[in-house]
Write a structure and sequence with these properties.
heterodimer, A: 113 residues, mainly beta, 5-stranded antiparallel β-sheet, globular, B: 116 residues, 7-stranded mixed β-sheet, 4-stranded antiparallel β-sheet, 52% strand
């Protein structure tokens, strides 16, 4: 049972434009959400996170929005750069406080120069 | 930044043999290490969580006798796939956490296991 879903396996965006990556979840016990970026043959690297008590967190070109009522979060990258091309995973932690993360299936972002 | 290495990066083995994968935190001590498995076009699935000096905690559906985890030190955890079969072929990724905070998990580059 996939509790964290990324329904778009791929996304292509022109350089300089906004990239919006979406993630939906089903478990209301999730209290912390993270986005990871992964290049081929490398492990995921942490990008940005948001607590369930917030609805927005911004870090430079990256902003994560959380809509708890819709159980939906999104990652906005603006302006998009070719170096942003990678696979992006959203992940969620359940409220028990454990470090277990539930990952989505990933979205491959391609930024076209 | 925190670096986690995995060795080997790619291994091919015959069915019935055992394969050991090492995960090392190179510049920090990891109180907790995690092992994930990723099938093609699927998400990372947590297999087990290990704390140094104690037995690993396995997720439901993961055979502990099949996937042996040893967290011998604060910088090294090993995953041994015993009596490997073709269905064990997958991408195995470890992560290490220097603190209990979830966002401080640092991931290794992964190991691709192919069982013939």
């Amino acid at each position: 049972d996939q509790q964290v879903k990324q329904n778009s396996p791929s996304l292509s965006v022109q350089e300089g434009r906004i990239s919006i990556l979406n993630c939906d979840y089903t478990n209301s016990m999730f209290d912390y959400f993270l986005w990871y970026k992964k290049y081929p043959a490398e492990g995921p690297t942490f990008l940005i996170s948001i607590s369930s008590i917030k609805d927005k967190n911004e870090d430079g070109r990256f902003t994560v929005f959380l809509n708890k009522s819709a159980k939906h979060l999104s990652l906005h990258i603006v302006p998009s750069q070719p170096g942003d091309s990678a696979v992006y995973f959203c992940a969620a932690r359940i409220r028990t406080g454990a470090n277990n993360l539930f990952f989505g299936t990933g979205t491959r972002l391609t930024v076209i120069p | 930044g925190a670096v986690v290495s995995q060795h080997p990066s790619w291994v091919i083995c015959k069915s019935g043999t055992s394969v050991k994968i090492e995960c090392r935190s190179l510049d920090f001590q990891a109180t907790t290490m995690f092992w994930y498995r990723q099938f093609p076009k699927q998400s990372l699935m947590l297999m087990a969580t290990s704390n140094e000096g104690s037995k690993a905690t396995y997720e439901q559906g993961v055979e502990k006798d099949k996937f042996l985890i040893n967290h011998a030190s604060l910088t090294l955890s090993t995953l041994t796939v015993t009596s490997a079969h073709p269905e064990d072929s997958s991408f195995y990724i470890c992560s290490a956490a220097p603190t209990p905070l979830v966002h401080t998990q640092y991931f290794g580059p992964g190991t691709r296991l192919t069982v013939l």
